[in-house]
Specification:
mainly alpha; Growth Hormone, Chain: A; 20 helices; 76% helix; disordered C terminus
């Protein structure tokens, strides 16, 4: 079929919206704690509610895509997301926030499952790898921008003066004066409803799923879960996402607690740089993987992350402000390498295996909760030391993984005939 450039652009915008909604929780943590008078472990229930939706919905979403198609699943997903945002925006409370984030997380999980096969068909198989990387760049761009948008809205909502900012004119009547950050959820609701309308109008091609993309029956998943190697790689995704969210969710609160950094300005921008550096690291990782075995790259970047996290947690204010974004740079390659090592380590049922791996995103629910609970007992700095445990597991994958197929690398020396 012909390449559908408009649909590829729509998918890239979907990547952007997914990331924008997913990675805003971290910068909001200090405001959420102050607004609802929460402990560290209680506020960690919020990312738990969001990411546990991935653990619950990823496999059923794959089956739903096969039954009703990508377009309907995407419409349902964005509609669920808009409902979640509207519930909380209209009646902000901690209990409704938990429900809201679970609904938004459900929508995002459904979208993640639907858009990758669609991107292959819309952009053409030969361009799938390039378009997938482009999708990750859109994802990273949204992660970088969302804390800056939060900072822009909140600062201008709370700025005093004779002539209020136009942001306050839009959101002022909709949100309580003491909760200006709620404006973001009105924004999310509008974004999600707009995406429903756009997808409804858009023409979608018929997607013939390749065998490796099919979700498979529950029996297939159960058979895979009996294999120790599948569980080991599931734990790899679980610990990686837990580490990523464990850092991102607590950067702003850590800087506020230990270095008196304003979470609405410098704290938010530090989280933004964390995601921005992750995007830059992804590009470097793609280049490195053309020259170095992926396991060696994983080992090197894991060790660098462990060292940088230690520096961030024990260094001065200036050091922490530089070290936290650097962590984003070093963890950037972990997701793609663990996924590729996992899929290259089994000979069949890749679609079902992918569903199990994506379910590991639930690590983003559990690990920040553990950090928060330890933070209440021992202090947030001590709680964040738990991430050395998860990083140690990610590091170990580089040593014990034995893929059937290794990543293809470019040899830097010419082979001499007869060698």
């Amino acid at each position: 079929m012909k390449h559908n450039t408009a649909l590829v652009l729509l998918i890239l915008i979907t990547f952007f919206v997914i990331s924008f909604l997913t990675n805003i929780i971290g910068p909001l943590v200090p405001d959420i704690i102050d607004s609802f008078d929460l402990s560290l472990s209680t506020v960690a229930v919020l990312p738990f509610a969001f990411f546990i939706a991935y653990g619950i919905m990823s496999v059923p979403a794959g089956m739903l895509v096969e039954k009703i198609g990508e377009k309907k699943v995407m419409i349902i997903a964005f509609f669920i997301s808009s409902l979640g945002a509207l519930f909380f925006a209209c009646a902000p409370s901690f209990a409704l926030y938990i429900l809201s984030l679970f609904l938004i997380g459900t929508g995002m999980a459904m979208l993640q499952v639907a858009i990758n096969p669609l991107l292959r068909v819309a952009g053409g198989e030969k361009h799938f790898a390039f378009n997938s990387v482009l999708g990750q760049l859109f994802f990273g761009l949204a992660s970088f921008l969302s804390p800056l948008v939060y900072s822009f809205i909140v600062v201008n909502m709370t700025r005093d003066g004779v002539n209020p900012h136009w942001i306050k004119g839009i959101f002022g009547p909709l949100v309580p004066d003491q909760l200006p950050w709620i404006s973001l959820y009105w924004l999310f609701a509008v974004f999600s409803l707009l995406m429903v309308l756009i997808i409804w109008i858009a023409k979608f091609p018929k997607v013939e799923l390749q065998e490796d993309e099919r979700a498979g029956a529950w029996q297939t998943h159960l058979e895979l879960l009996k294999k120790p190697l599948v569980l080991l790689y599931f734990l790899g995704i679980f610990t990686y996402v837990g580490t990523e969210q464990g850092v991102a969710n607590w950067i702003s609160k850590f800087l506020q607690t230990y270095h008196d950094v304003d979470p609405q300005t410098l704290g938010a921008s530090t989280v933004s740089y964390f995601w921005g550096m992750m995007t830059a690291g992804t590009i470097l990782g793609l280049i490195l993987l053309k020259f170095v075995d992926s396991r060696k790259v994983l080992i090197g970047f894991s060790l660098a992350t462990i060292i940088t996290l230690f520096i961030a947690l024990t260094g001065s204010r200036g050091v922490a402000l530089m070290a936290f974004p650097a962590i984003g740079f070093f963890i950037s390659v972990m997701w793609s390498i663990i996924i590729s090592l996992a899929l290259n380590s089994v000979a069949e049922h890749h679609g079902s295996f992918s569903g199990i791996l994506v379910t590991g995103i639930a690590g983003g629910a559990v690990i920040p909760l553990i950090v928060g609970a330890l933070g209440d007992l021992l202090g947030l700095k001590a709680g964040l030391f738990f991430l050395f445990v998860t990083l140690a597991y990610v590091l170990s994958i580089g040593f014990w993984s034995k893929p059937i197929i290794n990543n293809e690398v470019i040899r830097l020396r010419k082979e001499i005939a007869g060698e």
